[in-house]
Amino acid sequence: RSPAVNALSSEASKPAPSTSVAGSRLAALNAWVAEVAALTAPAAVHWCDGSDAENAALVAQMQADGTLLPLNPATNPGSWLHRSDPDDVARVEHLTFVCTSREEDAGPNNHWMAPAAAHAKMDALFKGCMRGRTMYVIPYCMGPIDSPLSRCGVEITDSPYVVANMRLMTRMGAPALARIEREGLERAARGEGGDTFVKGLHSIGELDPGRRFIMHFPEELAIKSYGSGYGGNALLGKKCHALRIASYQARHEGWMAEHMLIVGIENPSGETHYVAAAFPSACGKTNLAMLIPPEGYQREGWKVWTVGDDICWMRPGADGRLYAINPEAGYFGVAPGTSAKSNPNALATIDANTIFTNVGLTADNQPWWEGLDNGERPATDWRGNPYDPDKGPAAHPNARFTVSAKQCPSWSPMAEDPQGVPISAIVFGGRRASLVPLVFQARDWTHGVLVGAAMGSETTAAATGAVGVMRRDPMAMKPFCGYNFADYFSHWLSFDGAGAALPKVFHVNWFRKGDDGKFLWPGFGDNLRVLEWMIGRVKGEAGAVETPIGHLPIPTDLNLEGVELSDEARAKLFGFERAGWQAEFASIGEYLDGYGPRMPQALKDEQSRIAVLLAD
Ligand code: GTP
Ligand code: SPV
Ligand code: MN
């Protein structure tokens, strides 16, 4: 029995949109959809066109079955709360696999399974799993629809929540399908095999953590994800495609797919420098991307432009500079800690048309989370129980909002530029309570690659498992690099060469703590002071002192007007602690050695060179 096609109306409380296209002009896509339908046995197949009518029908259906709860229309128009399964609230790194034919290609940085075994395991889970459900076919484009840097995919899912989120996070529906068809037909006309789009298959399954796997097949441009409805596990365009599969593709095609925000800093003379920054999950990317300048800077005319808050695809342009696009069209941001003080742009962005996941509620159905500080009180926690502070926070620490990027007051129109923006500086950073100063600059590209490769950070609630444990998270890509880190570092090193005009590389730490356990740096808007210094360095104007770990500013090299820093703060934020760095470099050396002979010699040499300087 073949399933009804585009039968949204049979489940929705509103009539189905009549505009949906069922099927495509691409035989390979139709064949894959038919194959998946035969395996998963859905009651209906719906090809998503991305229209408002389609979204309205899906939202009505989700409201009817309780997947989405309406928020207060007076304070949060067009916005919804989704409560996930309590065991399905974050990425699951221990259940995430990279399935290359050779294990060493996935590297010690990934869990690996042989492709045939992984397919067999997943297909057994997918068999018949969509019985009684609608199967949605979501064509999407990562990046501006007309950009040569963009790449497309198709996600098949049985979750309308995933469809609604993908519609906010990607360019989804008819325009994406048109691009996929055009690229596919052109490729076929050239007589080439293979597909131009990434095939992502997803089912929420039973939401049983024991039957949950996120599998990547980079050599086949394919993803299979079962048993979770949560963001990074289920919105396959995001981490699975735009980082794990894309990083693998990027290595073979000479570009980079990175876990980075992209922000434009406009100075009072109207000159804009674009900065890309890699911080691990829940370590400040969204906040830096939407930064509001301190008052003095605002008076002088500084402006901040948000291009992206999580993922950055870069490639060298004709002038040797790296040009970057944000492959995403929305933000899947951390709610806790977002306030009018810390991130007013984010708060303004999410005041309408937003899906909140796992936040608390006030008595009159406004979303609530720890740190919101808007004078309201929670009545209900993220599980839907009456709020009881003895039973934990009202919002889950990894509660999120999903919203269209264009709603952000600082949204940059350059986010739609098909050529991308030129990057002046690359910034690495992590959560380091001790040792690591506020900012330093790498001496050159090779040193910069080492600084990225050596990144360490304390774990956060963005993934299940212990929080606050220091681990190496090179370039913030530990959970996201789709191949062996040793090869990834080689790929990074390979960008340096004749004609290259690469960004300057920096490292920051907004999270240094004092003896009292409190953050020493005010952070948030004041981080612009550090970005200003970096741009000054790029232009050869700002001062620094040379140390074995790189160029460090002294406090007077930064504009600290209006910032009160204790003597302890000055010493720790701007100091170089030789003994601590000796131990750190020994640990970095061991880490690099853990990758064996595949680790590029140039990086090991750089580590040894600095270790020698530190020993003096
Ligand atoms: P993902 O979406 O998981 O990739 O996270 P992210 O890197 O975008 O992190 P985000 O900006 O959402 O910040 C995560 C947490 O760090 C929030 O609770 C923020 O309030 C907090 N945070 C961000 N920037 C700063 C800062 O400069 N200083 C301090 N102390 N906290 C910060
Ligand atoms: C992260 O964990 O880095 C996120 C959220 O940005 S997720 O989409 O779940 O990966
Ligand atoms: Mn992220």
Defining traits:
Phosphoenolpyruvate Carboxykinase, domain 2, ten-stranded mixed beta sheet, binds guanosine-5'-triphosphate, binds manganese (II) ion, Phosphoenolpyruvate Carboxykinase, domain 3, 616 residues, alpha/beta, 17 helices, Phosphoenolpyruvate Carboxykinase, domain 1, globular, manganese, 30 strands, manganese ion binding, binds sulfopyruvate, single chain
Question: Please, could you describe this protein's structure?
Answer:
With 616 residues, this protein is of the alpha/beta class. It folds into three domains: 4-68 and 87-253, Phosphoenolpyruvate Carboxykinase, domain 1 (3-Layer(aba) Sandwich); 258-328 and 411-615, Phosphoenolpyruvate Carboxykinase, domain 3 (Alpha-Beta Complex); 331-407, Phosphoenolpyruvate Carboxykinase, domain 2. Helix 2 (52-65) packs across helix 5. The protein binds guanosine-5'-triphosphate, sulfopyruvate (SPV) and manganese (II) ion.
